[in-house]
Amino acid sequence: MKIYNTLSKKIETFTPNEEGIVRLYTCGPTVYHYAHIGNLRTYIFEDILEKGLEYLGYDVIRAMNITDVGHLTSDSDTGDDKMLLASKRENKSVYDIAEFYTNAFFLDCSKLNIRKPSIVEKASDNIDFYIKMITKMLDDGYAYIAGGNVYFDITKANDYYKLSGKNPDELYVGVRDTVEEDKNKRNAGDFVLWFTSSKFENQDMKWDSPWGIGYPGWHIECSGISGKYLGEYLDIHCGGVDNIFPHHTNEIAQSEAYFGHKWCNYWMHGEHLNDQSGKMSKSKGEFLTISLLEEKGYDPLSYRYFVLSSHYRNQLTFSYEALDIAQNSYKKLKNKIKQLDRTPNLSDKKLDYYQDKFKEAIGNDLNTSTMLTLVYDVLKDNELSDFTKLYLIEDFDKVLSLNLIEDIEEVSSELDELIRRKIEEREIAKANKDYALADKIRDELLQRGVKLIDTKDKTKYELI
Ligand code: AMP
Ligand code: ZN
Predict the structure, then answer these.
(1) Residue 244 lies in a domain
(2) Atom 14 of ligand 1 has which residue's CA nearest to it?
(3) Domain boundary pick from 370, 386, 406
(4) Residue spans of alpha helices (H) in 166-239
(5) What is the Å distance from ligand 2's center to 38 Cα?
(6) How far does residue 244's CA lie from ligand 2's centre (Å)?
(7) I want to staple 78 with a disulfide (CB 3.0 to 4.6 A). Which of 42, 147, 172, 180 is the partner?
């Protein structure tokens, strides 16, 4: 598989640390509000990545955080805690806010067929591990205490700017939008690992620590959850492009300081979804959520289709006109598939050919539009039986997750049923010593792409 690595700024051949296993970390939501459809574009990209890796034969272990504390309105420690602002806005406790928007997030994900990662951890449930990391970073001289807070000293990191590849002056433009200099910092770019004094007004979520009662900074949460659940060598880390700096830059600095070696080999970032006026946001313009699209009559999967039509590294502009076109194509596609004849007849001829093409598209830095085109190519191919088309589309849909075949169980179970019947007929032929017939059945199935394997007690099969 070839992927674009933000760290090297090149397309690279992917090799995991451990053969056949991928340890994947994807930054999760800050649960202070609904996710907008831009946020969800990033989670669709990560979902395709996970399922694509599985299609290529990897076992994927994926972890994600739920940020319920410590994420301030500016990504670099200025402004207020987003959760606290939400609790004031809605007159609820931060715990209630977190629970409500976490559930809302996973509901949106399920509408978009985004699978829940196998490890999902609340930031507030892993305080012990952040304390362990921060303690070691203080002992080793990477961190310092000033004015009650604990800071990371970026001059101690190994090549702090290596992920963004930009110089500090370029990077800080825009990040310090609410310029509010923190006099405790040794260097302007230093960031908070643990807050005890500043940003502390009415904070409900707080814990005891060696540095006083307080709460963790946002960046340490991802380093902590990744390190605790996926170990000290990570294969791939993802997020949206806005996460490159400062969030992921800080994650690398902390994790490499703590583990004492290179931590993550591949960094993949999804480009933004924009609205007509530019960057999508929760505070300006129409707040575009999945529920809003549903209220307007759109199927959430039309939005998934819209996202998959473009490459994750290209910016995409949302408009209702563009979504109309996507919804129209998606519905037409499903209709065509519905009309296919389901009589079991698996012609083996081009199964491999199309499955290899699909793997190539995944391996080509997740080329989702080519994956979609392959569905159309299969439908157009006159050399394939309708059943083979269904079989292939069902197979591709394990990654695309567009519910292309509604009653998905049926296709595989009809195939199983056909093979089971043929195996039975062959058993009877063998019992009657009609070996010519038994061989004929075996060859017929082979021609349909099904290879029979005779074992001591029964006949098994595999699709070739
Ligand atoms: P947040 O909940 O704000 O931490 O963001 C959740 C995810 O959405 C992060 O990975 C962001 O990088 C990503 N994100 C934020 N804005 C957009 C956007 N307009 N388009 C795509 N992804 C975004
Ligand atoms: Zn993160």
Answers:
(1) yes
(2) 39
(3) 406
(4) 168-172, 218-230
(5) 17
(6) 10
(7) 180
CA-closest residue to ligand 1 atom 9: 240
Q: Are residues 176 and 270 in the same domain?
A: yes
Residue with tokens 């209220």: 295
Instruction: Let me know if residue 290 belongs to a domain.
Output: no
**Residue 234 and residue 264: Cα distance in Å, rounded?**
5
Domain range for 366:
296-406
Rounded Cα gap, residues 151 and 3, in angstroms:
34
Residue 429's H or E segment, with its range, is helix 408-431
- Cβ(240) to ligand 1 under 6 A? yes
CATH number, domain with residue 399? 1.20.120.1910
With a CB cutoff of 8 Å and minimum separation 6, the contacts of 196 are: 148, 149, 150, 209, 211, 212, 213, 214
134 and 106 both lie in a single domain: yes
Q: Would you say the CB of residue 65 lies under 6 angstroms from ligand 1?
A: no
Of 387, 406, 425, the last residue of a domain is 406
Query: What pTM does this model have?
Result: 0.87
Same domain? For 204 and 114 the reply is yes
Please report whether residue 289 resides in a domain. Answer: no
Does ligand 1 come within 6 angstroms of the Cβ of 272? yes
CATH code, domain carrying 159: 3.40.50.620
Q: Tally the domains of the chain.
A: 3
The atom of ligand 1 lying closest to the CA of 27 is: 10
Nearest CA to ligand 1 atom 23: 39
* Three-point CA angle 409, 414, 420, nearest 5°: 125
In tens digits, the chain (464 residues) has pLDDT values of: 999 999 999 999 999 999 999 999 999 999 999 999 999 999 999 999 999 999 999 999 999 999 998 777 776 676 778 888 888 899 988 899 999 999 999 999 999 999 999 999 999 999 999 999 999 999 999 999 999 899 999 999 999 999 998 777 766 655 544 446 788 899 989 999 998 876 556 677 889 999 999 999 999 999 999 999 999 999 999 999 999 999 999 999 999 999 999 999 999 999 999 998 887 877 777 899 999 999 999 999 999 999 999 999 999 999 999 999 999 999 999 999 999 988 877 766 789 999 999 999 999 999 999 999 999 999 999 999 999 999 999 999 999 999 999 865 556 666 777 788 888 889 899 989 999 999 988 988 887 778 888 888 788 887 76
Same domain (yes/no): 136, 207:
yes
Residue 19 three-state SS: coil
187 and 314 both lie in a single domain: no
Q: Which of 283, 270, 313 is nearest to 27 (CA)?
A: 270
Separation of CA 273 and ligand 1 centre (Å) = 9
Q: Give yes or no: residues 438 and 393 share one domain.
A: no
Q: Which of 66, 236, 242 to mutate to test the pocket of ligand 1 (most atoms within 8 A of CB)?
A: 242
Cα 240 versus chain centre, distance: 10
Report how far ligand 1's centroid is from the alpha carbon of 141 (Å). Answer: 33
Q: How close is the Cα of 42 to the center of ligand 1, in Å?
A: 7
